[in-house]
Amino acid sequence: MKIYTKTGDRGTTSLVGGTRVSKADLRLEAYGTADELNSFVGLLRSHRLPEDMDKVLNFVQNKLFNLGACLATEHDKQQYVRELLLTQENVQLLESEIDRMTAELPVVRSFILPAGSEKVALSHVCRTVTRRLERRMVELGDSYEGSELCLQFVNRLSDYFFILSKKLAQNDECEIFLWEK
Question: Tell me: domain 12-171, CATH 3.90.550.10, correct?
């Protein structure tokens, strides 16, 4: 089977459900950003991370695929992705991880620059791409199934990456660079 279909050669693609839309469509921007984030998470995972962190990031990557499928599906075709919808338990898992790591970290009362080791910097890249994904999802509004929980999950995910960057710095005994006014 050939990977190229040539159906997108004129700048359109199909949503799950069959409707053709411009490749500049906001929905594509949203699920493309989820895909981009997933790739950066994969790059972060390629570094030697503690098993507990890698396990959470594996969970995150799978949920980002689910989110991308929901974002790529036409509003009236959501039956195709019902079993992929994010849940309150998914949000709570991120909250639990944030709380667990925060309890092990010193309090920092300043803005932190996205610098340090490569792992720390990659965690910040994941955080900023997550924030862009969140902005695109807000622009889409409730035009996809489970939008409220999806937004909660993505909002927690950016917080998770922020705390993860601090925890990675602590684990690697890497300096945290604070913003100097």
Answer: no
Structure-token match 């995972």, residue found: 45
- Three-state secondary structure call for residue 49: coil
Distance CA 148, CA 13 (A): 26
pTM above 0.70, yes or no: yes
Collapsing DSSP to helix, strand or coil, 2 comes out as coil
Structure tokens at 71: 């974002």
pLDDT digits 0-9 by tens, 75-95:
767 666 777 788 999 999 999
AA letter at 35: D
For the segment 130-172, what is each residue's pLDDT rounded down to a tens digit? 999 999 999 988 776 678 899 999 999 999 999 999 999 999 8
CA atoms within 13 A on the CB side of 41: 27
Both structure tokens of 83: 């079993």
The CA-based angle 32-28-85, given to 5 degrees, is 75
Where would I find the beta strands (DSSP E) of the chain? 12-14, 20-22
Per-domain residue ranges for the chain?
12-171
